[in-house]
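User: Second chain of the day. Same drill as before.
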Amino acid sequence: MADPRAQPVSRTGVATPKFVDRDLYRMAETYGTPYFLIDEATLRKKVNEMEHAFSEFKGAFRVAYSVKANFNPSVIKAFCEEGIVFDLTAPSELQFVLRCGGSTENVIYTSITETLSEYEEVLGLGVKKVVVASYNGMLNLAEAAARAGVDVKTMVRVNPEVHVHAELRGSMGHGKFGLQLYGSGQDTASGVLKRVLASPNLIFEGFHFHLGSQIEDPSCYAEAIEKLEAFVLGARKELGHFEVNTLDIGGGLPVAYGKKVPTPKEVGGKIAPQLNSLAESLGRRFTLVAESGRFLTAESTVLVARIVNVKEFADAKYVYVDAGYHVLLDSALLRHEYPVEVIPGGRQALQKTALVGRLCDPLDVFPTSSRSKLGGAEVGKLVVFKDVGAYSIVMNMPFHSQPRPPVLMRSGSGDYRVVRKSQDTTGLFMSEGGDCLHP
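Assistant: Same format as last time:
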């Protein structure tokens, strides 16, 4: 099933070829609709874009993939082959990475709950670098490391409390994530840092922060770095000299769903001077880590659905597809305006066109962007939702007793293969408790 126009996987940054209409229809006939289709070459191209984004930074740079965005094993395997770092928040994610050929040498583990049992599990599997974000979490990590008899490179997650112009903000006063740089009480960056430096099995490695998702103005990074610099210089006066070997600036690189957003190169160029100034001030060229889940995966994937009904009024046209927000949840949660295209297309309808799903819910209406092309919508044609590779696949839910659709991948050589089998109604019934009806 190879597309003869498909190019091999390349690290040169060459634009990934588009999917051919006849291939999309062939996949629809073979596997049914809806289905997800991932392009491996785009995954690798996005790694390449990130690797070149911070070329003006005068130190080492590593790309980190946030597995929560898409944990399909074929996606993880492609990133393992790229040799990038993995940002993990659960032991189950670690199991996925290891089973896909990943190494704990390329793992930064950032727990949210920071329990002793969790740390014992991941240290037992070989994790060597852990981010702590609370005083209790730090104590649990220290105890787990002592029980295991291992040294753990420990990073402190801070909350710079800067204004972030983003879809989802992660930097705010007394927020869920990270430690305030200053303040009273035990859950402050200075208090946790002091204990890390004094713990025999915790080797201080550096700092971590995460400002948000879909960050449109990268100046917040520069402000956060400036605040962190002042904090480190002040802490050195109080605690004595300590090295900062790694700085993880989290994620936030935006995806252009329906509007113009800064490119990774523009973001990197904006904050590289501040990073270089920080390295000079600290007297050490630290390793810079930038994370991404959304940017690395979103543009790699399309969702293909079929038009099953059309309803027309004088001033409006409703186009019904056999998908819904149960397979594209961000369309309802975040009102993502995914670029949408009818294939084959046609003349745009005179009425306003609404694209709706098959769920019995008024929220099941897909927001469309200026990049959407809904002309020629007729029963039987396909609708392609673009840029859906982040969070959509992993957030599938069985609303209306809908089984999970299949996930396909086009390899770098142009072959198509199944990377997640479709779920049938019997499988869903049993997984939802049908197997418990007759104990």
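The chain has two domains: 21-39+298-434, 111-292.

User: Great, on to the next one.
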